[in-house]
Design a protein that fits this description.
Layout lengths: L1 H26 L8 H5 L11 H13 L9
Length: 73
C-alpha cells in the first residue's frame, strides 16, 4: 500500500512538471510559428556567385592536379 501512495505522488509531481513545461513553452512563444521551419527545407539555396576569376582558379587547380596529386591550397 505504501508503494501505491508513493507512485501516485510521483505521478502527480511528474504531471505538474509537464504542465509547467507546457505553459512555459506557450509563454515563451515556442508555438508561434510552426509553418516557417517546415517550409524552409523546401526553399532553394542561394546561388553561388561564379565570377571569371573563380572559374579560372578552379580550372588552374584542375590542371595542376592532372598527375593525381592532392590540391595545393
Amino acid at each position: 500500500m505504501n508503494m501505491v501512495v508513493i507512485l501516485v505522488l510521483l505521478s502527480l509531481v511528474l504531471a505538474g512538471v509537464a504542465l509547467w513545461a507546457f505553459f512555459w513553452a506557450i509563454n515563451s512563444d515556442q508555438f508561434d510559428d510552426l509553418d516557417s521551419p517546415a517550409m524552409s527545407i523546401l526553399k532553394d539555396d542561394p546561388a553561388e556567385d561564379f565570377t571569371e576569376d573563380h572559374v579560372k582558379s578552379i580550372d588552374e587547380k584542375a590542371d595542376q592536379n592532372q598527375d593525381g596529386s592532392p590540391p595545393k591550397e
